[in-house]
Specification:
133 residues; alpha/beta; 5-stranded parallel beta sheet; 6 helices; 18% strand
Length: 133
């Protein structure tokens, strides 16, 4: 068995994932990978659009870049935690900012996991398998 999804009999498949990254190429690559793993993915490229998206796409998981233009991923995470629809979703920070202070700030903003780019599929799958803290 090569992946967590295989190890648990595919239980990781079928999640609704909101992916927010201002890098169009990175977002496209990760969305294709997540879709290949059996997830439904909606991609947005900035904070305001991500917040608007949750009105008609109720995610199970939010994968959010912290370094977004205009409204940071930290601000988006804080706002999502205030809203009923995203208050309890699994939220993953996927960022180039990997210091301990960055990790602590992300967790304080409401993220459940802090992943530093570049990140491998095994690390993403492990975070997806994790529960909200």
């Amino acid at each position: 068995m090569n992946t967590i999804a295989e190890a648990d009999g595919g239980a990781m498949q079928g999640r609704r994932i909101l992916l927010v990254d201002d890098s169009l190429d990175a977002a496209l690559a990760l969305s294709m990978l997540l879709e290949a793993l059996g997830h439904e993915v909606r991609t947005e490229h900035d904070g305001p659009r991500a917040l608007a998206a949750i009105n008609d796409f109720t995610p199970d998981v939010v994968v959010l870049d912290i370094g977004l233009p205009g409204m940071s991923g930290l601000e988006v995470a804080r706002e999502m935690r205030k809203r009923d629809v995203t208050k309890h979703v699994l939220m993953l920070a996927l960022t180039g900012w990997g210091g301990e202070a960055d990790r602590q700030e992300a967790l304080a903003a409401g993220f459940d996991h802090h992943l530093t780019k570049p990140v491998g599929i095994a690390e993403i799958e492990a975070a997806l398998a994790g529960k909200r803290k």
